Input
Amino acid sequence: MDTVTQQNAASTEETASASEELTAQAQSLMEQVKTLSLLVGRAGDGELHKSPLPPFDKGSSP
Output
């Protein structure tokens, strides 16, 4: 019975650690999405540089 209790405690600690890591990753992702949203919003205002590549012409193939 003591072994089961120890296993449960270890499992609980691992779960708590994984939860904290996922929370940190989710916060980081939310910050990145916010930054991207701001950049995309600016692109609509013409504040970002246009792509240095010419538009792709579907009609011209090698």
Notes: The mean pLDDT is 83. The radius of gyration is 24 Å. The CA atoms of residues 8 and 32 lie 36 Å apart.
